[in-house]
Amino acid sequence: MVQFVSHEWAHLKLNQQNDIVGEPKVISHLASLIKMGIKWYLLLAGTFFAVVGTAGYFFLSQHETNVNFQIPWWLLCAAVSFSIVLLPMRYLLEGSNQIAKNQIILLKASIVSTLAGWLAIYYGAGLYSLVIICATSVIVGFLLLFPTFLPFYKVLKMKHNVYHISWRNDFWPQQWRIGVSWLSGFFMFQAFVPIMFYLHGPVIAGQMGVAIQIYNAVNSFAQSWTYAVAPKMGMLSAKKNFTALRVLIKRTYLRSLMACIVFSIVAFLIISLLHIYNFAQAERLPSLISISIFLMVLIAMQLSNVETQAIRFQKKEPFVKASITSAILVILSNFYLGRTFGILGAAIGFALIMLLITIPWCHRIYKNEINKLLW
Fold first, then answer.
1. pTM higher than 0.70 for the full model?
2. Beta-bridge partner residues of 12
């Protein structure tokens, strides 16, 4: 959604009356994307409420309890479903290069909902505290998002929406590839802990969980630089300004790399101090060697993180085979090396696969795709 909107937004802008202006054909494409996004997330929200709500209800009903969970559970499912409906509004903001505005709205909603949650817990709301937190976030988010959505709503009311983007021919080919790549990465990282639990029990699995959480936390900080400029990558591609695009890619990579190095050093020093001074629960932390391997791989991964994002915002996803292959190899490595060497074996296997296969493979794809754009 963000990728497609960014390509249309390259030829649009907001005027002083807060109206979206540009070529009728481009505005029509944007209207088509808005309708597609609203329909998709309404369907997703309804499916979530019906499937997750019903499954959770029957699962919780299996346990005999005097706690009245039924009403809080269904209210929570309803609140989460409404939060899903807000997603296309957020993605329209991001795709139109208004990421800062979207993040401010998220921050405000998070602060207010957290305060509401504390008050709910303090005054004994019990299970309804979760409902209050989620519902408050949805209400605040909607109130802040709706004014920003008005220009897009006006686009839907225009009479010349005759140029449509086909979900089946234009959107779905990208959507399923992105989905498969994302799921490959999801299963790859989610497999570490259960495999360690299966092979070595809860203590080692807990240490692996800490290592993966540190990896993800540092990566989130580093990737914020890429995330902030991703729509601009799509806009430059739509304008065919590939020289500026390459400059932006290089600048973004250097920033995310430096951020990753700084946060990795900070994380390593904190874990080192916990080990050295034997703070409480220090035995639950991974070894310094293991965590250092994960962090060094993460630093190296910033190159492919930026490059894959840059290509995906060309409305392309040529990384499916690389994603699937990497996930399978890492899972197999966890079993074979993790069985003998524990977390250290899993870390070494992960490092070898990423450094020798995934990063070079993704870089070669990136170079090929960039060369196609230039020629």
1. yes
2. 22
Q: Which residue has the tokens 């003998």?
A: 340
Give the number of other CB atoms < 10 A from CB of residue 176.
12
DSSP secondary structure string, 194-224? HHHHHHH-HHHHHHHHHHHHHHHHHHHHHHH
- Read off the DSSP letter of residue 287: P
Other beta carbons within 10 angstroms of residue 9's beta carbon come to: 25
Question: Which tokens go with 25?
Answer: 């054909």
User: For the segment 106-132, what is each residue's pLDDT rounded down to a tens digit?
Assistant: 999 999 999 999 999 999 998 899 999
Compute the distance between CA of residue 357 and CA of residue 326 in angstroms, rounded to an integer.
Answer: 8
Helix (H) or strand (E) holding 20: strand 20-22
CA distance 96 to 104: 15
Q: Which helix H or strand E contains 21, and what residues bound it?
A: strand 20-22
DSSP state of 283: G
Q: Kindly report, residue by residue over 270-301, the tens digit of the pLDDT.
A: 999 888 877 756 677 889 999 999 999 999 99
Give the DSSP letter of residue 22. Answer: E
| Chain-centre distance for alpha carbon 74 | 26
Q: Which amino acid is at 374?
A: L
CA dihedral 71, 73, 79, 85 (to 10 degrees): -120
Give the integer Cα–Cα distance in Å for 218 and 245. Answer: 26
Beta bridge partners of 21: 13
The pair of three-digit structure tokens given for residue 364, joined into one six-digit string: 């070669």
> How crowded is the C-beta side of 369, counted as CA atoms within 13 Å?
22
Task: With beta carbons less than 8 A apart as the criterion, state whether 11 and 97 touch.
Answer: no
